[in-house]
Amino acid sequence: MTTIDLEAIEDPADGLRAVVALRALADRLEAREVRRALDAGWTYADIAAALGVTRQAVHKKHGKRR
Questions:
Q1: Residue 41: how many CA atoms within 13 Å on its side-chain side?
Q2: Which of 26, 45, 50, 64 places its Cα 20 to 30 Å from the Cα of 2?
Q3: CA 34 to centroid of chain Cα atoms
Q4: Is the pTM higher than 0.85?
Q5: What is the 3-state secondary structure (H, E, C) of the chain?
Q6: At CA 23, angle to CA 17 and CA 28, rounded to 5?
């Protein structure tokens, strides 16, 4: 795994672009894994517990994609 020296990012614009990119990556990864979990028979409650959020939050965010 690669380690990133956060102190090496000198320009705030570079740091903020990195935040945007990481959020987009996290959203794509979450959507993929929620889809895989649902396909494997997990409930929204199971997924919510794994993500540390409420069942309602998972259903609201990912329910319409099914």
A1: 0
A2: 50
A3: 10
A4: no
A5: CCCCCHHHCCCHHHHHHHHHHHHHHHHHHHHHHHHHHHHCCCCHHHHHHHHCCCHHHHHHHHHHHC
A6: 130
